[in-house]
Specification:
Number of strands: 0
Radius of gyration: 17 Å
Shape: globular
Structural class: mainly alpha
Distance between the termini: 38 Å
Helix content: 55-70%
Number of domains: 1
Largest sheet: none
Strand content: under 5%
Amino acid sequence: MMHRIVFLLAGIVFGAGLALSRMIDPAKVTGFLDITRVWDPSLAATMGGAVVTTFALYAIAKRHPRALLGDDMPLPPSAIIDRRLVVGAIVFGMGWGLAGICPAPAFAVSVLSPVALWFVGGLIAGVLAFRWLERKAD
């Protein structure tokens, strides 16, 4: 039960951070992504804060073999930038840029916005299609 409470609290903090930084507003995200007009760099502060926080917490996590609730502490297995990572990042960026909606905020606003709901449906379809193609290739 404690795991569920921790996950719920983490989700609340994450959702509040998305709302506070206005990342749930497609206009804010589009303003950051559209560098050809009036560019809004304020979202870079949100991303920078996330990177700094994550960096600090990973430094702490590397010194502990177990999480606070006793589970294994899985850290990323590799820092190699390979073709799959680059292509995935490009495809992700294309979807983000075309829709102006990042996946996490899309989940947060999908109950409020028909556009975000369609985006989340497409996101799920894309993940399922990739998994199907990956299994077919093996």
